[in-house]
Every structure is written in structure tokens, then in C-alpha cells.
């Protein structure tokens, strides 16, 4: 079956007509008292992590500038780049949900900074991500499908250096700065919110213009090493972890156990990724803050497929599946559930998937 | 004319929490605020048809469990995107240890 990922195309219409869009999703049962405890907000963990993050960024960028243009500056730029071009992806994500901090202005402040660094308009992408949670990996409905079928490997690999994503972000920024909204954006951003999209795009364009002007005046790319270019040379980590969220798994289903992947990862990556490696848990209960996801995982793991034991193991599982999708778009990985889990609704999902291969 | 419907006991709802109440083919959410008052709203979020009973009460806000939109459950006012449309509210009174919700004729 050929997939049309346009939000305005035949798959979008089919998803709405079949009831696949905006459907009720599977949830593991969690007692109300325990879920309430998990959902509780706290400023402490996010303040700690944000202080560490920005202190590290200032330190790495400072050393990079001090050592510039010596090759000895490279390791510091690489470290700064990962914090700018990857950690800001998870900050954008968690603050967009409003769950990172208890205090709303703190969420909004970090959200705004992270959106600028990761080049995602804060208004557009709030609505885009809302749709991603409503219709996760529903073809024609979800605007955040990272790996479409058949997989475009050039795009996937290029995005490890941010090439396509960042280019799209900057070109969309320039489009919005001229006062225009892309037709697909208009599909999920309410008209009342669209003037904000344009206002923010204009502010960002001015910041980039000032940075480029400074670089020209200095005759050096150093200002762009601090603002803009880290979105490219530091993107690899968020692409590496982001591809694993749903890559190779089912689409057009209403059970996050079928279309999302939880991966155990090292503590440094967990700091950069803000615990989004617990991705099934996050999609099933998006109001649980990042710092409570390990506790949520322990509580519901009996009902979920076994997590991938590491990032390399997850890639070893995903990559062959993506290669098989080159020849057969309907191929996907169906991960086994433990005996303690409630089974998948195969009858329901086979109707949605048609004659999908396993 | 308001019809008062017996919805639950006062101690059925913890302070700063809510429960679901279904009646006459409709669904409602009944809240017990941190200052001991009771309130009632429509049960489903105005953004998408997700029931608020699984959401989180924070002070006088209810957060939708799906997209984290927020309403002031005292007035129904939408307080955080993606919710943009206010939530319908209903009068509530307490008689003895019972919570009653006022529904239209």
C-alpha cells in the first residue's frame, strides 16, 4: 500500500472517515492515586538540569571562542553543539507539554529559547506536536513522522547533520516572516494563533540577520558557531534518539505499544534527551513529567514490550526493518508482549493496517 | 428551571481532585477544590473528546490528560493551549454530605 503523508491528501481523508483519527487509544490501567502522584509538578529537577545545561553551554562556548580558530577548539564546539542542537530538542518537547516545571513562566521561557535554537516556531510546533499526540503515526494526520515509508535514507542520514530539518526550519521561518502561513500549517494551527507565528518568525529573522551581519563585520564565522550552525553540527544526538522513538514500528494503529519504542540509554544521553527514551510511557501518559518517567516505567512495564537494552541494540533492531520497508512498505516490527500484558487488539488493528506484514 | 441531581458524597472526591459523573446520557466532571469548595463542568475537553476525569487538578486548574490544555474549573475559562474554547460549568450545592449538580430542564 502506497502511503501519502500529506496532511491534505487521500490518507488524511481515509483516516478521518475510518475513525482512525482522533480515536481512543489503549492505556495501561494505573490506579488513580498512583497516577496523581506521578503527574505532580515540581520546579526542582528542571531548575537543576537547566542550570547545569546553560552553565555547560557557556563554559563550552567560552572555551571554543577562547581557543578559536585553533583545532583545539573543536571538542568544545562539538560539546556545545550537542547541547544546542540536541538537548534543546528535548527541552522544546518537554516544555511544550508544560510538564518540565511547575511554574508556567519557567516552562514558557525555556520553551521559547529552545524553539529558537532548534528552529521550530513555538506556536506552529506546539500545535504540530498536539496533532502528533492525537494521531501518533497515523499517515496523513501526524505532521511529525520522522521516517516515512519507504524510508528516504539520504534524508535520514543528512539529518544527523541537521541538513534537511534545519533547512526546512529556516525556510519556513522566512516564509512566515513574509506574513504567509504554509497550507499544511493552516491545517493544524488555528487562525487565531497564526499572527503569533508570523511575529515570532520576524523576530528570529532579525536575530539571524544581526548574527550574519556581525560575522561579516568580523570576517569570521565565529558568531555563527555560537548561533545557528550548532543546529547542524550538534543535531546528531537528537536525530539518533529521535529515530528510535517510532522507527520500524507500526503505523495507523491506536496502541502506543505497537508504534513507539522504549530504550534503556546511558545517563549522559538521558540528560540530553530528558528521559524521552521512555517513549511508550510518554505517549501513553503525556502529562507525566520527564523526571517521573522512570517511576512510570517501573509501574507499567508488565504491560509493555521489553525495552531495547541500549541505543546500538535498538538500531540493530530498527535498521534492518527500515531496509525491508524499501521493498515492502507494509513491513513493520511487531514487538512481543510479556505474558503479564493485555494482548494487542489484532482484530482492530488488522482492519486499520489492511494486509500488513509482520 | 434547574434540576438538582445527587451526584456523589463529599468524601468521594479528595481535595484538589475530581471524579467523573455520568447522567442522562451526558458526562460531567465534579471537582473538590483545595479550599474545600465543589464545582462541576462538562466532562470532556473542548479541544478533543478526552475525558477530564483522568487529568490533574492544580489549585483551581484542571489539566487535560491528553494534550495538557488547562481550564479554570470555577469559570470554565480556557487557560492554556491547545484549548481555546471555554468549558461549560454547572452550579453545585452541598446538602449534608451529598454533592448536587444543577442541570437545566
Automatic annotation (TrEMBL), chain A:
Any one GO BP annotation for this protein: lipid biosynthetic process
Biological classification of the source: Bacteria, Pseudomonadati, Pseudomonadota, Alphaproteobacteria, Rhodobacterales
PANTHER family per record: DELTA(5) FATTY ACID DESATURASE C-RELATED, FATTY ACID DESATURASE 2
Lineage top rank: taxon: Bacteria
Transmembrane annotation, as ranges: 46-68, 203-227
Keyword Transmembrane helix applies: yes
Organism name: Fertoeibacter niger
Alphabetically ordered keywords of this record: Membrane, Transmembrane, Transmembrane helix
Annotated InterPro entries: FA_desaturase_dom (IPR005804), Fatty_acid_desaturase (IPR012171), Rhizopine-oxygenase-like (IPR039393)
Residue ranges of domain Fatty acid desaturase in the record: 70-306
One cellular component term from this protein's GO annotations in UniProt: membrane
Name used for this protein in its record: Fatty acid desaturase family protein
Pfam families associated with the record: FA_desaturase
Keyword Lyase: no
GO MF, one example: oxidoreductase activity, acting on paired donors, with oxidation of a pair of donors resulting in the reduction of molecular oxygen to two molecules of water
Signal peptide segment: none
UniProtKB/TrEMBL annotation, chain B:
GO molecular function, one term: metal ion binding
Family matches, as PROSITE patterns: RIESKE
Alphabetized SUPFAM superfamilies for the sequence: ISP domain
Rieske domain sequence ranges: 5-101
Entries under Gene3D superfamilies matching the protein: Rieske [2Fe-2S] iron-sulphur domain
Keyword vocabulary terms for this entry: 2Fe-2S, Iron, Iron-sulfur, Metal-binding
Keyword Transcription applies: no
Superkingdom assignment: Bacteria
Keyword Transferase set for record: no
Protein name, entry field: Rieske 2Fe-2S domain-containing protein
Organism: Fertoeibacter niger
Source taxonomy: Bacteria, Pseudomonadati, Pseudomonadota, Alphaproteobacteria, Rhodobacterales
Amino acid at each position: 500500500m502506497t502511503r501519502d503523508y500529506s496532511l491534505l491528501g487521500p490518507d488524511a481523508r481515509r483516516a478521518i472517515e475510518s475513525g482512525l483519527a482522533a480515536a481512543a487509544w489503549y492505556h495501561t490501567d494505573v490506579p488513580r492515586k498512583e497516577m496523581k502522584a506521578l503527574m505532580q509538578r515540581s520546579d526542582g529537577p528542571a531548575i537543576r538540569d537547566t542550570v547545569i545545561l546553560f552553565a555547560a553551554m557557556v563554559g563550552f562556548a567560552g572555551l571554543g571562542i577562547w581557543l578559536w580558530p585553533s583545532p583545539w577548539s573543536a571538542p568544545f564546539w562539538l560539546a556545545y553543539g550537542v547541547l544546542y542542537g540536541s538537548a534543546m530538542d528535548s527541552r522544546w518537547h518537554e516544555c511544550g507539554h508544560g510538564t518540565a516545571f511547575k511554574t508556567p513562566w519557567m516552562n514558557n521561557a525555556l520553551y521559547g529559547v529552545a524553539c529558537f535554537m532548534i528552529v521550530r516556531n513555538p506556536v506552529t510546533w506546539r500545535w504540530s506536536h498536539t496533532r502528533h499526540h492525537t494521531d501518533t503515526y497515523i499517515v496523513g494526520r501526524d505532521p511529525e513522522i520522522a521516517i516515512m515509508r519507504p524510508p528516504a535514507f539520504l534524508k535520514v542520514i543528512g539529518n544527523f547533520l541537521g541538513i534537511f530539518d534545519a533547512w526546512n526550519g529556516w525556510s519556513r521561518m522566512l516564509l512566515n516572516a513574509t506574513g504567509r502561513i504554509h497550507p499544511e500549517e493552516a491545517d493544524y494551527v488555528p487562525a487565531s494563533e497564526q499572527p503569533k507565528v508570523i511575529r515570532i518568525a520576524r523576530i528570529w529573522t532579525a536575530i539571524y540577520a544581526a548574527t550574519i551581519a556581525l560575522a561579516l563585520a568580523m570576517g569570521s564565522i565565529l558568531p555563527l558557531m555560537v548561533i545557528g550552525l550548532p543546529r547542524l553540527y550538534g543535531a546528531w544526538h537528537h536525530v539518533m534518539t529521535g529515530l528510535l522513538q517510532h522507527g520500524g514500528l507500526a503505523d495507523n494503529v491506536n496502541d502506543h505499544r505497537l508504534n513507539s519504542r522504549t530504550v534503556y540509554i546511558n545517563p549522559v544521553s538521558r540528560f540530553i534527551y530528558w528521559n524521552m527514551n521512555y517513549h511508550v510511557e510518554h505517549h501513553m501518559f503525556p502529562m507525566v513529567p520527564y523526571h517521573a518517567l522512570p517511576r512510570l516505567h517501573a509501574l507499567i512495564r508488565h504491560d509493555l514490550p521489553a525495552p531495547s537494552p541500549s541505543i546500538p541494540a535498538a538500531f540493530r533492531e530498527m535498521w534492518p526493518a527500515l531496509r525491508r520497508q524499501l521493498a515492502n512498505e507494509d513491513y513493520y516490527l511487531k514487538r512481543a508482549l510479556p505474558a503479564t500484558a493485555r494482548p494487542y487488539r489484532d482484530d482492530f488493528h488488522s482492519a486499520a493496517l489492511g494486509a500488513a506484514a509482520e | 428551571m434547574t434540576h438538582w441531581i445527587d451526584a456523589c458524597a463529599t468524601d468521594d472526591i479528595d481535595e484538589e481532585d475530581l471524579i467523573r459523573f455520568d447522567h442522562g446520557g451526558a458526562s460531567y466532571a465534579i471537582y473538590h477544590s483545595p479550599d474545600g469548595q465543589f464545582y462541576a463542568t462538562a466532562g470532556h475537553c473542548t479541544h478533543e473528546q478526552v475525558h477530564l476525569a483522568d487529568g490533574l487538578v492544580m489549585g483551581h486548574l484542571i489539566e487535560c490528560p491528553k494534550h495538557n490544555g488547562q481550564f479554570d474549573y470555577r469559570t470554565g475559562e480556557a487557560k492554556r493551549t491547545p484549548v481555546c474554547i471555554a468549558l461549560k460549568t454547572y452550579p453545585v450545592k452541598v446538602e449534608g454530605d451529598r454533592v448536587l449538580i444543577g442541570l437545566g430542564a
